[in-house]
Specification:
Two copies of one chain form a homodimer. The first copy, chain A, is α/β, with parallel strands linked by helices. Helix content of chain A is 43%, strand content 19%. Chain A has helices at residues 54-65, 86-98, 113-125, 139-144, 183-200, 202-216, 220-240, 255-265, 272-289, 295-307, 319-327, 355-365, and strands spanning 10-14, 21-26, 42-50, 69-77, 106-111, 132-136, 150-155, 158-165, 170-174, 339-344, 347-351. In chain A, a hairpin with a 2-residue loop joins strand 7 and strand 8. In chain A, helix 5 (183-200) packs parallel to helix 9 (272-289), helix 6 (202-216) packs antiparallel against helix 7 and helix 9 (272-289) crosses helix 12. Chain A is globular. The A-B interface holds A 43, 86, 90, 93-94, 97-98, 100, 102-104, 124-129, 150-152, 155, 157-158, 161-165, 243-244, 327-328, 330, 332-335 and B 43, 86, 90, 93-94, 97-98, 100, 102-104, 124-129, 150-152, 155, 157-158, 161-165, 243-244, 327-328, 330, 332-335. Chains A, B: NAD(+) binds at residues 79-84, 113-117, 137-138, 150, 159, 177-180.
């Protein structure tokens, strides 16, 4: 069977009324013409990618979608979280306007989370909204940005501070593209997969523990299940709370500490998923110190995070700096820092915590670093 | 009766499901505490204004809303369409982040259309969306940006190219603030008022013809009716088409030629309303030359535009330049320029037109300039 004939092995429907869309998950989806049947036909299309991913996949994507658009242009952004800023976003707008792209122009985000977030925000903002398609080529982007419609750029004073909730028309997770992913990024993606266990599904946590070696070896069938289950859980949460007023915040498990790590070290030093992995360890410690879960549970999840190749000890920024950085985080409302904590295995809650306890956790989790 | 006791003389409800909001229209609304009763209470609020309007009204607004927010900050932007860009928008983000504003922070847009558009886009984008209130202090902003949720900034290659559809929680049109409006800006606002006649309501057109002198003399009761009726018509159109897929485009009567005038001269040379006024004259000429309306009708509306103190002869940019500038306009889809034309008095349509005819109109309407 040629790659063009391989069907999508998994599919998740994201049900958001008139903003509903499917996520296709499988091997060799990029080249299969059927993959793109649901994309609105338009005169113009623009593929947005980066200097790492474009040479690998842009020509193949362009060929696959050529039947749906009269012209397909390519915008190549510099690679990395450090470029997730207005200047780089503007490269997309410059290109769209230079080509006189109209409001039916379809944008394709081909790359990891940074490309997806920036392309999504560009699509949300260009002429106040044009259609876009996510083609995530990292595990993290496949499990994290496929669902939820969060798009954003960073500001010097905070991560993801400027953005929009904006849904794609289609998400295509081609697992074959993960073959070129550096091992560190595979682990970073697994952090967001593991996350869904403690917050929502202990059976899934057990499945990941059993299959972590196969996942690290990039077994396609295992990856397909991991991506599908992650998207399903996220979709369930987001379906109840599209604009993040309450429940959806549990998806930020590990992110409050994680964002502080990223901001404190300077974006790009640690990968987002690495910071989230370590952030989960800190959030587990805080949950344990508040008496919400026992030590065995915190140890069990921490051990899995370590087996996935993720850091479990944070950088020594000092407790005061951590607190300062978390204060400006989006989850700090009215000045109080809100943490996503595990209050029983498979269930998360959002609440504040005494500063003293948070300082203890930071001291404990950054020792030996 | 003290100003604080003056009730809103008019009110228009904008019905958009869970994004519905009221427009209050009346004299001395700014200082009346009851005006602000519907605004979400929050710890932080930020008034965004400009160097012209802030000295006149910011202190009064701050005093009026002080009961609803623990802290009220003020961001003063440079005045004018020339500053409706990313750099100026970023002054708002810088301030919000420097003050660690959370996602419940309420933004108040105090000023004309530029302040409203930028504050609205900042509110749409800051942390992916915070509540905002429009306090338009120009006639144009009161009739044009009160309804529709259009927010945007300009790009060097096009006007309003980057933005969002984002609804305010409340719009307060205090007619008393129009006392400080320069005469040129009053006329510019009347352009958008007049617009609603030919596209939707010939009775309203007759009313404006009868009352144009009183409107120019800033009679509060006449202004209240003009603002209310304009908002009602716009609300009716927008209610059917929130995201501008079809019908809503008729609101852009005069805007295709108008945007070309603004872009061709450089933003800020002509006021937006002046360009729209002259753009309506050109669109009427095109409608007439296509045989959609007769000469008497085109002359009648052109005469009213002139009586309102608006230019009816366009700048001589050359037909080629006009066409080039209109090509990149948002209404050009798949390369064809779409014009909003009057196909019978009180009714508009959106369609293309032969280039030769468009050139004739441009030649005709820019002679003698």
């Amino acid at each position: 069977m040629s790659p063009a004939q391989v069907p999508a092995s998994e599919q998740v429907e994201i049900d958001l009324g008139d903003r509903s869309y499917p996520i296709l998950i499988g091997a060799a989806l990029l080249d299969a013409p059927g993959t793109w049947a649901g994309v609105p036909a338009s005169t113009q299309a623009v593929i947005v990618s980066n200097t790492t991913v474009a040479p690998l996949y842009a020509a193949r994507l362009r060929a696959a979608i050529a039947a749906r658009h009269r012209s397909v242009d390519l915008v190549v952004l510099p690679d990395g979280e450090a470029h997730k800023d207005w200047q780089t976003l503007n490269l997309i707008f410059d290109s769209l306007l230079a080509k006189a792209c109209d409001r039916k122009t379809v944008l394709y985000a081909l790359g990891g989370g940074v490309v997806g977030d920036m392309t999504g925000f560009a699509a949300a903002s260009y002429m106040r909204g044009v259609p876009f398609v996510q083609v995530p080529t990292t595990l993290l982007a496949q499990v994290d940005s496929s669902v939820g419609g969060k798009t954003a750029i960073n500001h010097p004073l905070g991560k993801n501070m400027i953005g929009a909730f904006y849904q794609p028309r289609l998400v295509v997770c081609d697992l074959t593209t993960l073959a070129t992913l550096p091992p560190r990024e595979l682990s970073a993606g697994l952090a967001e997969v593991i996350k869904y266990g403690p917050i929502a599904d202990m059976e899934f946590l057990g499945w990941i523990e059993q299959n972590i070696a196969g996942l690290l070896a990039r077994d396609t069938a295992l990856l397909a299940h991991a991506v599908k289950r992650s998207c399903e859980i996220k979709a369930q949460v987001v379906g109840h709370d599209e604009r993040e007023s309450g429940l959806r915040a549990i998806l930020n498990f590990g992110h409050t500490f994680g964002h502080a790590i990223e901001a404190g070290l300077g974006y790009g030093e640690w990968l987002h998923g690495e910071a989230v992995g370590c952030g989960m360890v800190m959030a587990l410690q805080l949950s344990q110190r508040l008496g919400l879960v026992d030590e065995a549970f915190a140890q069990r999840v921490t051990a899995l995070i370590a087996r996935a190749g993720l850091p479990v000890v944070g950088p020594r920024l000092g407790a005061a700096r951590y607190l300062e950085l978390m204060q400006v985080d989006k989850k700090a409302e009215g000045g109080e820092i809100k943490f996503v904590l595990i209050d029983r295995p498979g269930h998360a809650t959002v609440r504040g915590a005494p500063d003293g306890l948070v300082r203890e956790v930071i001291e404990h989790c950054t020792q030996g670093a």
